[in-house]
Design brief:
- The complex is a heterotetramer of chains A (325), B (307), C (318) and D (507).
- Chain A is mainly alpha-helical and 325 residues long.
- Chain A has a single domain, classed as ABC transporter involved in vitamin B12 uptake, BtuC (Orthogonal Bundle), CATH 1.10.3470.
- Helix content of chain A is 77%, strand content 1%.
- Chain A has a two-stranded antiparallel ribbon.
- Chain A is globular.
- Chain A starts with a helix and ends with a helix.
- The longest helix of chain B has 27 residues.
- Chain C contains eleven helices and twelve strands.
- A six-stranded parallel sheet of chain C has the order 2-1-3-4-5-11, with helices on both faces. Chain C has a six-stranded mixed sheet with strand order 7-6-8-9-10-12, sandwiched between helices.
- Chain D is of the alpha/beta class and 507 residues long.
- Chain D has 19 helices and 20 strands.
- The longest helix of chain D is centred in the middle third of the chain and has 16 residues.
- In chain D, α5 packs across α6 and α14 crosses α15.
- The chains are: A mainly alpha (325), B mainly alpha (307), C alpha/beta (318), D alpha/beta (507).
- Chains A and C meet through α4, α7, α12 and α14 of A and α1, β7, α6 and α7 of C.
- The complex binds adenosine-5'-triphosphate (ATP) (2 copies) and magnesium ion (2 copies).
- One magnesium ion binds next to α15 of chain D.
- One magnesium ion binds next to α2 of chain D.
- Chain D: InterPro entries: AAA+_ATPase, ABC_carbohydrate_import_ATPase, ABC_transporter-like_ATP-bd, ABC_transporter-like_CS, P-loop_NTPase.
- Chain D: Keywords: ATP-binding, Cell membrane, Membrane, Nucleotide-binding, Repeat, Sugar transport, Translocase, Transport.
- Chain D: One of its GO terms (molecular function) is ATP hydrolysis activity.
Amino acid sequence: MAATVETISPLSRVGRIVRENPVIPLVLLLFALIALLNVLQPGIFNERWVGNTIRFAMPLAMLAACQTLTMLTGGIDLSAGVAATVSAFVVATLTPLVGGPMAIMLALGAAVLIGLVNGFGVGICRVHPLIMTLGTGLIATGCLQVYQRYVINTGSEIPWFFEFLGTGRTLGMPNGLYLFVPFAILIIWGLRRTGFGRLLYAIGANENATRLSGVRSWQVLMALYTLSGLIAGITGLLYVGIIRAPSLSLANSLMLPSVAAAVIGGTSIFGGRGTYSGTIVGALILTVLGTLLTLLQIPEGARRLLFGAIILAVTALYVRITDQS
Amino acid sequence: MTRVLARYGWSLGLLAILAILLVATRLIQPNFGASGLDSLARAALPFAFATVGMGIVVIAGGIDLSIASIMAVAGVVAALLMHQMGDANAGWVVLIVLTRVPDIVVTLAMLFVWEGVALLILNAPGGAAAPWLRELVVGAVTIPGLPPELTSWLPRALVVLIAFVVIFWLPLRRSKLGLSIYAIGSDQHAAFRSGVPIGLTRVAAYGFAGLFAALGGLSITLSTGIGEPIAGPYLMASVAAVVLGGVALTGGKGGLLGPIIAVFILRTLRLDLTLLSVDPNVTTIIEGTIMVAVVMAGGLLAMRGRR
Amino acid sequence: QDYTIGVSNTVQGNGWREEMICAIKAQALKSGEVASLNIAHRNTDAAGQLEDIRNLIQAGVDAIVVNPANPEGINAAIKEATDAGIVVVAVDQAVTEPSAYVVSNNQEEYGYLGAKWLFEQIGGEGSVVYMRGAAGASADNDRDKGFKRALAEYPGVKVAQEVFTGWQQDQGKQQILDYLATGVAFDGVWTSGIDNVIVDAFVESGAPLVPIVGADNAGFVGQLGSVEGLVGAAVTNPGSIGAAGVTVALNILKGEKPAEQTVLVTPALWDNVSEEGKASIAAAQNPNLDPEWPVSVSIADYTTYSTDEIIACKGPGE
Amino acid sequence: MTEAAAGRVVLDARGVAKRFGAVAALKDASLTVKAGEIVALMGANGAGKSTFVKILTGALRPDSGHIHIDGQESRFTSPAQARRAGIMPVYQEPSLIPDLDVGDNLRLVDAPIEPFRHWVDALGITNLRLDDTISQLPLATLRILDLALTLAKEPKVLMLDEMTAALPTDLVERVLTVIRGQADAGRTVIYISHRFAEIARVCDRASVLRDGVTVGDFVIEPGIEEKIVELMLGGVPTRAEVTGAHIRAVSSAETPRLRVSQLAAGSRLADVSFELRKGEVLGVVALEGQGQDELFDVLAGFRRAQGGTIEVDGKAASFGHPADAIAKGLTLVPGDRKDALLMLRSVRENIALPLLARPSKWGAIPMREEAARVTGAVERLQIDMRAQAEVRRLSGGNQQKVTIGRWVAAGVETLLLFDPTRGIDVRTKHQIYPLLRELAAQGASILFYTSELGEIPLACDRAIVIFGGRIVDVIDAEAATEQNLMRAAYGLTEKERAASSSAEARP
Ligand SMILES: Nc1ncnc2c1ncn2[C@@H]1O[C@H](COP(=O)(O)OP(=O)(O)OP(=O)(O)O)[C@@H](O)[C@H]1O
Ligand SMILES: Nc1ncnc2c1ncn2[C@@H]1O[C@H](COP(=O)(O)OP(=O)(O)OP(=O)(O)O)[C@@H](O)[C@H]1O
Ligand SMILES: [Mg+2]
Ligand SMILES: [Mg+2]
C-alpha cells in the first residue's frame, strides 16, 4: 500500500503538468474546435479564414484584458465596452474636425476619464466594482448620446492608421497583430514580472494582507481601472478600424463575450487567479465557436443554446482538469 | 435599539429615500394618486421578482447572470401554454419545471442557453395570458366589507409581491435551509465544517432564484399579455437593486427587504424623471449617477461608522 | 395652442431610432403647436414600455407617440391612455389595440420589396445570404414574412445561409467575412439594414461583389453611388416616421381625424441599376450625415422641417 | 482512575494514508482511543496531524486505511455525517459563520441553547449575547464559542486541533479543566497542541506522528517529554539553549527606537507608555482583551489612537495607514495568519509582497535579487516548500512561518510580533527565539506579545505587563518566571495593588 502511494502514475503526472499549465487544455480544445469545423466545412482552414478569426479575436481579447486585470483583484469592468465605443465614436467623428492625432488623443482621453472615475469610485470610495462600472457605463452612454447630437452632420472618418491595422494584411495575417502582439506580451510579462502585476493578484487573494504589507490598495486600484479604461479606449480604436462604421453601440456587444473569454481562460471572478494567455485562448475559442455556429444551418435559438452549452461544458471540464475548488 | 438600527439601518435609510421620492412625486404632479401607485407597483413587479431571486443567490455567495433569460423563458412558455390550451394553470407548471440547478460561473453559459430556449419556443413575441390571471395584478385590492377608499391605495401588484415574498422568504429566512444559504455565502469553508451540505444548499438557492425569476417572467407576461423571447434589462437592474439594497456581493450579508425597496426607489426615480420631462439621455446619466452616489454614500457612512 | 406630447421608444444607441427622435423634436418645434415634449427613450422591453406609457399618462400629456416594442404587449397601457382621453399614435410598427392610430412603415413590404428586387437581379436562379435583424424582434418577424413571400414567388432561389446580425455592425461584418473566407457559395445578399459593413467586407477581402440589398442609411447610399462594381438597392425605411406621428397626433388633437385608423407608409426602392433609382440615389447623397442615419429625412405631406432642422435635433423649449 | 474508566475502544484508525499531489501528508497513521481517555496527537509542523483530524471527521477522504467507530467500519464523506455519529472537531480555524449571529450559528448546527450557555459560562466568557455577530467577536472568544457549541452537542469523540494556540493563559486553564471533566464523564478527547505543558496536565497518552507515519504511543508520565520530542523530530532534540546569554546591557541614554506615551485606543487600551530600545526584544504579557490587540494595531497603523503619542527614533509619528508605519520601519506580524497571507498564491509571492508595495517598485521585478531574499528567509525559518505553489496547502505552522519570513526578507527595523509562535512546533520555536536574538543583535527592535508565558525568558530582554489597558509592571528577563508573569498578568503585583488602591476613583 505504501508503495503505491510513493510512485506517481503517468496519468497523474500528465494531470499535474496540465494543472500547472492550464493553458494547455484550452489550446487543445481550440484545436479540437477547429478540427470539427474543418470536418463540417472542408477546406475552411485556410490562411484567409485564420486571418479573419484572428482579426476578430484581437479586439475581444483586448477588451477581455480589461476583465482579466480587474477580475484578478476581484473586480470587473462593465464599462469597458462603453469606453471602447466612446473612444471609437469620438475618434471617427472628431477626425474630420480636428485631425487624426488630436482626435485620437481626445478619444483615448475620454476612455481614460471613464477609467479614472471607476478607479476613484472603486479605490477611494470603495464602491463595489460591479456597481461602479455599471454606473459609469450608464453615465458614459448618456454622455455619448448627448455628444452624438452635436456631430450628426460632421460626417465621420477613421484615421488611416487604424484602417491599416483593422483591414490591412501582411503575409495574410491581419495588421492588427502589430498592435496586439506587443500588447499581449506586455500584459503577460507585466502580470508575471512586475510589481504592479503581482499586486493585482495579491489584492484579489487577500486585500487585508496587502494592506498589512504596506500596499495602499487605492493607488493600485486607481491605476488599474485607469489602465483598464485606456486599454478599452485602444480596443475601440482598433475595432472601429476593423468595422469601419462608428455607431453608438459599436463595442457593447463585445461586453459579455469579453467576460466569457476571461472566465473560459481560467480567470477566477473572485480574484487572485488567472492568466492573460488563457484569456487570449478563450477569446479565440469564442470566435471560432461563433463561426462554427454561424456556419451550422440551425435555428437561432438552437445556435445560442449550443453556444451556452459548449461554454458550460468547457468550463466544467476545465475546472475539473485544473482541480480548482 | 442601536443594534436594531445597525441591522436595519440601511433598509430604513432606503425607506426614507423612497418616502422623500414619493413626496417629491406628489409635489411635481399633484394628481399623482392611487392609479400612479398602481402603475408603479406593476412596473416594479418583474424587477422585484428578479431582484428577490438574484438576492437569494447573492446571499448564498453566487450570482445568477441568467436571471433575465430565465424570465424570458418563463414568460414565453406561460404565454404559449395559456394561448394554446387556454389553461391558466399551465403557468404554474412552468415554475416547477424552471426551478433548475446551475452553478456559479455556469450561469453565464446558462444565459445563452436560456436565451436559445426562449427563441426556440417562440421566435417572435406572441402567445397570450389568461385574462383572470391578468386581473390578478391590475388595480387596487378590494376587501369585502371594507370601504374601497381604504384599500384603493393598495395596488394588487404590491400585494402579490408581498404575498410571494412572505410565503417563501420569511419562513425560509429563519429555517435551517435559510441559515445554510447565509452560511455558504458567508464562509463556505466554515459552513462545510459545520456540517452544512454545500451542494444541496446551493442547489436550493439557485432553485429559489429560478422560482422567483419564473414569477418575474410570468408577471411580465401578465402585464404585457404576451410572451417576449428577448430578455429585458433585468439582469443588471437586479444586480444594481441587490447591491443598493445592502446585500454584499461577497455573500452572507443583508436581507431582501432592502433590495425590494431599492427596486421601488429606482422605479420612482424613473417616474419622477419622466414627470419632469428631463431630456432622455440625461435621464440615463442621472440614473447612473444616483446609483453610484447612493452606494458611495453608504460606503462612506460605513467607513465613518468604523472609525 | 400648446400641447404636451409624450414619446416612448425602447431602443437607444441606434442611428435609425436617434433620427426618429430628432425628427419628432424637429417637427414638434416646427409645428409651433407643441409646448413641450416628454420623451422616454431607453433600452427596455414591452413591460418597460408599459411603465413608460403609464408614467406619461401620470405626467398628463395630451398625446403619446410610441414606437411599440411589439404589437400586442403594450395594448393595456394604450387602452388606459385613450380611456384617459390621450391620443395615442403608434409609429414605425403597428399595434393591435384598436383605439390607437398607427402611422407605420410597412415592414412586411420592406422585406418583400428588397427581396423581390434581389431575386430578379440574380435572374430568379441561385442562392442568397439572408442577414436578418434581431431574433425575436417583431419588426424582424414582419420583414421575414415579406422575404418569405418573395421567396415563394421565385422557386429557383435558395437561401444559402440565414443568420441574425442582431442589428449589430460588428456581428454582420464578422459573419459575412466568415462566409467569404469559408467559400460558401452565394449570388446575392439581403440585409436588414446592416449594409455598409457588408460592402466593406467584400471590398476589403477582394471578393467579387454580388448584388446587395440594404436600407437607405447614409453610409450604404453613399456606397451605392461610389463603390466601383457594386450593384445594390436601398429600401427606404424613414426614421422621420416619428415626425409623421407627431403631425397625425396634432391633427387629431385639433379635431382633424385621419380617414383611416392606420396610415401605412409604403417603402420605396432605389437601385443603382435603373435610371430612376440612380437619380434618387444621387439626390439623396449626404456624405456628412452620420452613416447610420437614414437619408430620407422627410416624408411628404407629414413633415415640414428642413434637413438642417432635423440635424440640429432641437425640440420645443430647448 | 482513568485506567479504570477507560475500557471500550471508541475509535480505531489503522494505516490511514492521504496524498495531495506530490505531497504525502499521511502515509501510515494509526490511532486507538478508548472511552474516557484524552489522547494527545503530537508531531512537528506538517507531520499530518490536521490532515488526520480532517480525515477522522469526514472533512477529507483518505486514500487508504480503515477507521472503526465503536467497532463498526465507518466511511464518512462529510463533516455532517461524522457529526451525526458523534465525532466532533474543533478545528484550528473558527468554523462559525462570520456573518450570522451566535444564535443563528447554534440553530445552524442544531445545538441546544441552555447547555451552550452553561459551557460558555464555564469557559469564562461573560457578557455574550446571542445576537452578537460572529465577525465582531475577538478570536479567542470564537475559539471558546466553537468549543462550547461542540460540547453542547454532547460529542462522543471530541477533537481539538490546536484549539488553545490562540488563547491566553487564563482561558487555556479553563479549557483544560473542562476537557478533563469531559473525559471523566466517559467521553473521549483527541487533543492537538504544540505545548507540552498542556499535554502533561490533561492527557493520558500521546500518539506521535512523524512525516505522516505514527511512530509511537506513550503513556504520559514525568520525564517523557524529551523522548517524545526526540521521536517527533526524528533525531537529536535540537533544543537550542538560548536563555541567559543574550541579555544585552542597553544604555538607557540612547534615543529609544520607539517611545510610546499615554497611548489610548478603543475601549480597552487606556494608558500605555513604554520605550523600546535599539537591539531590544521587549515582551508583552497580557491576558485576553487587556488592550494588547489595540496597542499592536495602533503601532502598525491599522487604527488611530485616541490619545497619547508615538515617537520613532525621537521623532513624533502618527500613522494613517500601515504603509506609514512601514515607512518608519514598524512592521506587524498579526495574530491571525489568515489576515496576513495570500492563500491562493505561492510562498515566494507571499514573502516578496512588501518589497513591491510602493508605487516606485511597481515596475519590473529584479527576479534574482528577489529569489535570493526569499530563499534566505525560507532557509532561516525552515519553511517546508513541498506545497509552495499555493500557501493554503501548507500546514498551519508553515503558514505561520511565511508571515514572519516576509519581514525577514524585507529587512526589519522594528518588528511587532503578535503571538508569532502560535501553532508552531517545538523545534521551530527554538529556531525562532535565536532568530529574534540574532535580529536584535543586528540592531532590530522587537515588540513581542506571546500568549505562552514560558517564551518570555527565552527570547526577551524585558517584558511589560498590561492589565486593564495600563502597564502594571515591567519585569526583567531574569525575574520573568512563569509564576511572576502570571501574577502580574492578573494584576496581582505589589505595585499594582498599591496603585489601584490609590486610584480607586478611576473608571
Ligand atoms: N490540501 C492540501 N494540498 C497540498 N498539500 C497539503 C494539503 N493539506 C495538507 N497538505 C500538506 O500535508 C502535510 C501535512 O499537513 P497538516 O496540516 O496535516 O500538518 P500538521 O501536522 O497539522 O502541521 P501543523 O503543526 O503545522 O499544523 C503538509 O506538508 C501540508 O503541506
Ligand atoms: N481551501 C483549501 N484547500 C486545500 N487545503 C486546504 C484549504 N484550506 C486549508 N487547507 C489545508 O488545511 C491545513 C491547514 O489549514 P487550517 O489552518 O485550516 O487547518 P487546521 O487544522 O484547522 O489548523 P492547524 O493546521 O494549524 O492545526 C493545511 O494542511 C492546508 O493544506
Ligand atoms: Mg495542523
Ligand atoms: Mg496547522
